[in-house]
Design brief:
Elements (H helix, E strand, L loop, with lengths): L3 H11 L13 H15 L5 H16 L5 H11 L3 H21 L3 H11 L4 H19 L2 H18 L4 H18 L4 H9 L4 H26 L8 H11 L8 H12 L4 H18 L10 E2 L5 E2 L1 H7 L2 H19 L2 H12 L4 H18 L3 H18 L4 H12 L10 H16 L8 H4 L4 H16 L7
Helix pairs in contact: 1-4, 2-3, 3-16, 4-16, 5-10, 5-14, 5-15, 5-16, 6-7, 7-8, 7-9, 7-11, 8-9, 8-12, 8-21, 9-11, 10-19, 10-20, 11-20, 11-23, 13-14, 16-19, 18-19, 18-20, 19-20
Length: 472
């Protein structure tokens, strides 16, 4: 015999939501989130935990305008089960565990060691930092993690070697954006592919042309403008390099390469991440990089800890936020607002393939300006872009690339972005440790984030000219 409560819930979730004031009122959950998030940004606290509360408040506020509280509540539960959101959450958990292992293995220190052995200095070291940060970000799949690690270790080392401090930070940010843009296990890559209902391997391969053009131009600019730093006391320089240069983590390039090539070859991202994690657990202990006990262990207080645990749990907040935002957008769609918005875009902007692509660029640009976390911006606008590309038969690789490349361009330069805030905090700590270290103001740092500066107009040109365009 069927449960009458479950039967009634199932009936409610299949009904269309109705709001007092019409379908337009269904934007309240997302509007409240955006306004609250902008408040966090302006107050200097672009924190994901605060965004979670903002999304919860928005969804709760929307309920009071619904004509049926029970239907609204059940719809929230059903929308939480969205497959795209689930894919992103699963990817983050696996990618977080893998990147946690890799980031804790000393890869950054190993890269510093390579720099010392190659006797790089000045502009050449700045270029090397850009390339190294890009490779590291591709390996671990996180722009934020790259910026935190490289700013703490390589930033002071680069000053020692005569790099321009502002250009050095620009190289770190540019490399992080490059890797975030390209890495198969990056949250932006996963979300852009998931929201466009396509495979990660194909997206990464199709994105290479944009990434390599922007990366190549950036490398040349760093070679021209990356030097000019002042020399410091040789004894202090030698001490710093001895403290930070360590080749121990070099073998971890093997699992990093395995993940990249398995994912790009067309295998499922979960298979690629599993292969990477297994190889890391073999390579690390085999080469003496780390003991298995450091990956997973029971702490003295009875809690479970380790590099894999910290890496996976670090992404839990963004996973929760993903589910909440997908729900807010689902409410708009179920109420009919999305259909009306798409009709307006078709009449006024997206009247051609080029117009539809321009609309996608405008939507993701606006979302990135409103929200300081690029992944959240893509989660918010991804479903809209997916609907536009279907209507105009745009290939999902193309729409995923527009979402990701725009989100990894100028958002890395915004003064209130989470990455800028984090790097600034680390610089302040370094000033207390090293007499030669300086805190570079945003106005001096931003002009050197060449990858973001080059990539945005490149994608505008791609939309205008059709470069890289293919039909779905």
């Amino acid at each position: 015999m069927s449960n009458p409560v479950e039967t009634e819930a199932a009936k409610i979730t299949t009904e269309r939501l109705e709001f007092r004031g019409g379908a337009g009122v269904s934007v309240i959950p997302l509007a409240v989130f955006i306004v609250a998030t902008m408040g966090l940004v302006i107050s200097g606290a672009p924190d994901v935990n605060g965004m979670i509360i903002a999304a919860m408040v928005g969804i709760s506020a929307g309920m009071f305008f619904s004509r049926d509280f029970a239907a609204y509540s059940e719809k929230v539960f059903s929308l939480m089960a969205n497959r795209i959101a689930t894919v992103a959450v699963v990817a983050w958990l696996w990618a977080g565990a893998f990147s946690g292992i890799l980031a804790d293995s000393g890869l950054v220190e190993a890269i510093v060691w390579i720099g010392t052995k190659l006797h790089l200095s000045g502009a050449f070291f700045t270029v090397a930092v850009f390339i190294s940060a890009a490779f590291f970000a591709v390996s671990v799949g996180t722009g934020m993690g790259t910026i935190v690690g490289f700013t703490a270790v390589i930033y002071p080392a680069g000053i020692v070697l005569g790099s321009n401090p502002a250009a050095l930070l620009g190289a770190i940010f540019s490399g992080a954006a490059f890797g975030d843009n390209l890495a198969p296990i990056s949250d932006t890559t996963i979300v852009s592919a998931a929201t466009q209902e396509t495979d990660i391997g194909g997206v990464v391969r199709s994105r290479l042309k944009y990434v390599l053009i922007a990366g190549g131009i950036s490398a040349v600019l760093f070679l021209i403008f990356g030097g000019g730093g002042s020399a410091i006391d040789p004894a202090e320089a030698e001490k710093l390099m001895t403290e930070t240069a360590d080749p121990t983590g070099l073998p971890m390039l093997i699992p990093a390469a395995i993940v990249f090539f398995v994912a790009v070859s067309g295998r499922h991202f979960l298979a690629a991440l599993t292969a990477g994690a297994i190889s890391a657990l073999i390579v690390g202990p085999l080469f003496g990089v780390f003991p298995l006990s450091r990956v997973l262990y029971i702490a003295a207080d009875g809690s479970v800890a380790g590099s894999a645990v910290s890496g996976a749990t670090a992404l839990l907040p963004i996973s929760i936020l993903t589910l909440l935002l997908v729900t807010a957008i689902g409410i708009m769609s179920d109420a009919g607002f999305m259909d009306k918005l798409m009709a307006w875009l078709d009449r006024n902007i997206a009247r051609s393939v080029r117009g539809a692509e321009a609309a996608i660029v405008a939507l993701i640009s606006f979302a990135n300006i409103c929200v300081s976390v690029n992944t959240v911006a893509m989660i918010t606008t991804g479903p809209l872009a997916n609907e536009l590309r279907k209507r105009h038969k745009i290939h999902p690789y193309r729409s995923a690339n527009l979402l990701d490349t725009i989100s990894c361009s100028f958002p890395y330069i915004l003064p209130y972005s989470a990455t800028i805030v984090a790097a600034n905090a680390i610089q302040k700590e370094l000033v207390e440790r090293y007499s030669f270290a300086v805190v570079v103001p945003w106005t001096q740092e931003a002009p050197y984030i060449f990858y973001g500066i080059v990539l945005f107009p490149l994608m505008i040109a791609a939309v205008a000219t059709g470069f890289g365009r293919k039909k779905g």
